[in-house]
TrEMBL record:
Keywords: Amino-acid transport, Signal, Transport. Belongs to the leucine-binding protein family. It comes from Sulfitobacter sediminis. This is Branched-chain amino acid ABC transporter substrate-binding protein. Coiled coil: none annotated. Residues 1-24 form the signal peptide. Transmembrane segments: none annotated. The keyword Transport applies. The keyword Signal applies. InterPro entries: BCAA_transport (IPR051010), Leu-bd (IPR028081), Peripla_BP_I (IPR028082). Residues 27-372 form the Leucine-binding protein domain. The lineage of its organism: Bacteria, Pseudomonadati, Pseudomonadota, Alphaproteobacteria, Rhodobacterales.
Amino acid sequence: MKKITKLGAVSALSLIIGASAAFAENVRVAFIDPLSGPFAGTGTNGLHQFEFAAELVNEAGGVLDGDKIEIVAFDNKISPKESLIQLQVAIDQGIRYIAQGNSSGVANALTEAIDKHNRRNPDNRVLFLNYSAVDPALTNDKCNFWHFRFDANADIKMDALTDVIAKDDGIKKIYIIGQDYSFGKAVAAAANSMIAEKRPDIEIVGDELHPIGKVKDFTPYARKIVSSGADAVITGNWGADMLGLGKSVIENGFEGPIYTYYAAADGITAAFGESGKGSLRLVAEGLINPPASERAAEIYSAFKEKYPDGNVSQGRIFNVIEMLAKAINQAGTADDVVKVAYELEGMEHDGVWGGKLKMREVDHQLIQDVHIHAHTDENITFDYDNSGFGLVAESTVTMASADIPTTCEMKRP
């Protein structure tokens, strides 16, 4: 591939971003995620992607009359309690936009706190830009006007995964395992329900949860999986827990497919290497191999030039920033978050990494294409972790679960 500059990557943005002005202010976005502890790698790489996405928008002219988007980092140590402290710090600093994604437990705490804050402080409201926390409750019973989810929720992803599983006649037994918190429980519930509906002949031979971020040795879990006779494993594990579980399962002799949500990048791809080939399957949005477009390839190349050890592992982050910029421009203000929110809901947008995007009005769940990817070293344009291994899409569900029902009863200001 020819060497591509970042200037080329931002050219398409100029159609939706206003021209620069001599005097500009920053539109600040608080990034509240783990920057220390066992999930620091995931949080740090996510921060770099947010910063780079903002930089692309800013180089294309910023928003409104040349205002810049600025990402302000807050370390929540993956703790809901610490997240609420950092949320208040961000609000006290005048920040109106909150971005978070790692841990649905944190997201549940934040969305409740933001809803309460906005009801009590109508002149100082904030928006919650959820880029990765996929507990279905966040856009169902716990939905609120201030929360927007840019990732497909756990049910949407499980729907796509179980479609693939249902077509595999070789799968007769499945073991479900995950982290013991809201997301892990949601994955298990969806897997049980959808497998029973689509393949009632499949036996669930294991269904358990383990403490999040605290298991040092997954050998006991791996041995149970192998001894169960399972043909496949389903897990929503992420970060160090995904790596620990997956490596242990494979090393203990499991040879079937491991269906996952987050088994890539942040050191995970390199650590699995050859051992993950033919085994790891990951459900996610966005096309990397092959790149969805020349523009996508340009952005990825420019990101790798700036962050040689980084990965564009959460492409939806770029959608967050582009759609936020578009909403601010259409609202004509960054200060009135109610106007910005009304521009976001119902918004249709061309995704950076391919496909159409639509922020569904009824529950603020982004509807988009979902792909099942395989961990491989074949046909790789962009690898992860400089390992030679990456993800190649094996199947695609277009505008996945666009008509999925919701229990959301949203109250609008």
